[in-house]
Every structure is written in C-alpha cells, then in structure tokens.
Amino acid sequence: MPILRDLIFWLSTKKAFTNPIARTGMRLGFAKRFIAGETMEDGLRAAAELNAAGRLVIMNRLGEFVSDRREAEEVCASYCQMLQEISRRKVNGSISIKPTQLGLTFAPEFCRELTLRVVRQAGALSNFVEVDMESSETVDATVELFEAVRRQHENIGLAVQSYLYRSEKDLLRLKALHPKIRLVKGAYREPASVAYPKKRQVDENYVKLMRMLFGNGFWPAIATHDEKMINLAKQIVREQPGLDARWEFQMIYGVGRPLQEKLVREGYRLRIYVPYGTEWLPYFMRRLSERPANMWFVAKSILTGG
Ligand code: FDA
Fold this sequence. Notes:
Distance between the termini: 27 Å
Bound molecules: dihydroflavine-adenine dinucleotide
Radius of gyration: 19 Å
Helix content: 40-55%
Structural class: alpha/beta
Oligomer: single chain
CATH topology of the largest domain: TIM Barrel
Low-confidence stretches: none
Number of helices: 12
C-alpha cells in the first residue's frame, strides 16, 4: 500500500496524469465524490444538506501555495463572504483556512494580517476559524501564526498531524492557550526525517496525542475515519467524566458515510469538512492517495465517459 501511495503522489506531479483528471473531474462527476462543487453556492448547498442530516460543517475554499498578494486578498475576502453567508443562511458551521493560501510562504506578516481579518470577521459573527496544517516545511510558520492570533482571539483552532515527530512538542507548547486542536494523521508526502514512515507508528502516535488532548485543557476535535481511533475516543470520554463537552468528531465530505451516519445516530457531535472551489486537484489527489482503491472509480469514469 505505501508503494501505491507513493506512486499516486508521484503521478500527482505529472501533468500527463493530472490534466485528464482536472479536465473531466467535474464534468464526469467523479471529483464530486470529495468536493462539493466549484462555487461557494455549491459548498453552501452541501452544507445545508449535511445540517439537515444532523451534521455540523467546516467550509474550506480549496487552494494552496498562493504566491501573489492580490490573490491572497481575494481568498481572504471570499472567506469573509462565506462567514457572512453562513450567518445569513443560519448554517450550523465554521470555516477552515490554509495559511499558504493567504500568503504564508512569501509574506508571513501579510498572511497574519489576512488571518486576523478573517478571525475578526468570524468573531463579529460569533463564528470560529480552524487552520489546516499543510506540508512539513510550513509547520513552524503555521504554529507561529496560530500562536500569535490565538493570543488575541479565542475563536481560532489548529490542525495537528500525528505523522510528524514534532507534534507532541507542539501540543506541549500550545497547551497553555487551551486551544481547539483538530487531530489528524497527516495527508502529505513527508520524508522519514520528519514523519513516521509506518502506518502503525502514525496510529500509535495518534493514540498518544489523542490521550493528551482529552483532559489537558484542550478542546479536542478527533478528525479521522479510523474506527479504532473513534472507538478509543468514545471509550476515553466514557471513562473520564467531566471532559470539555465541546469535543467533537470530524470527517471529510464523501469519506466514511456509513460511519458518519452511525455517529450521528449515536448522538455524537460530528463536523464534516466541506471543500469547494476550482482549485480542487491537489486536494483530490490527496484523497486518492489515502485509499489507492479510489483510483478505480476515476479510471472507470474516464474510460467510460461517465
Ligand atoms: P486512515 O488513513 O487509517 O483511514 C481509515 C479508514 O478510513 C480507511 O481504512 C478507509 O476505510 C477510510 N478512508 C480514509 N481516507 C479515505 C479516502 N480518501 N477515501 C475513502 N476512504 C477513506 N490532513 C492534514 O495533513 N492537514 C489537515 O489540516 C487535515 N485536515 C483534515 C480535516 C478533517 C475533518 C479530516 C477528517 C481529515 C483531515 N486531514 C488533514 C486528512 C488526514 O490527515 C488523513 O489523511 C485522512 O483523514 C485519512 O486518515 P484517517 O484518519 O481517516 O485514517
């Protein structure tokens, strides 16, 4: 499986492979398995459906590694507009931003200014902003950005990846801020110098970090489709009464639907990450790499034209 995963990551960098996917994904419909659509309206429609099915949402406008101030400003404005739409339409949900989409890699100060703008807008509308964690070379700057904004505003949370060796230290550093932490396994291709190479090690670290999050002043968001991790979270909560009642499960749009339904039926708080926008290819490729079997529905759609 890791070999197939590496192969998909490698193919993601080859235009001959990605161009047909980018060209046909929305038209043939296979991209819609993981992406709500290309417009904000598509995202809001999916959010309304998920709310009606008892799930909260986190809206994410797709895009990453923006290298132009005007584009970053435009992304910021679009997040502010999304927050207004969430409020106006009474959507039960928040948003998630990617720092590199707001200029983190080329202008960190500017990125902080834009992040503050989004967080203040969210605050004015009694809403919340989560920050995605991206590839490892951006983690230092992302943690710094998060700390700076969190010191001024309570309505910001951060994703932390269990595949990184450093994540335990990051949590210890952030603990005093009592932040909302979205615990994920990690979706990027990382070298063994920074990340556990084996799935078993990533899972073990997930368990360790999850235990840290519960009962240590954090506000935990357990973001996974791994039933073993989900069952362990349920067990921790059963055995440790009096934990922060705001804790929640999170899952990705289009992944683990039967598990989503089960958690809602059981009365757990579940938030679904709803991505939308035209820049969906890198996100889509990460979803394919997580489960190489996903390649089959893409190949079938392209070959049969539907
Ligand atoms: P694991 O990979 O072990 O999968 C468990 C089971 O879930 C699989 O056996 C399969 O059945 C199912 N599954 C998982 N992925 C699937 C897929 N793509 N298609 C079909 N089935 C699938 N990452 C990151 O680096 N930074 C971030 O900010 C975020 N943000 C984020 C938000 C939310 C709400 C979630 C749920 C996840 C993320 N991630 C993320 C992604 C995360 O790091 C990870 O890559 C995926 O969640 C897959 O890992 P699992 O925890 O599901 O476990």
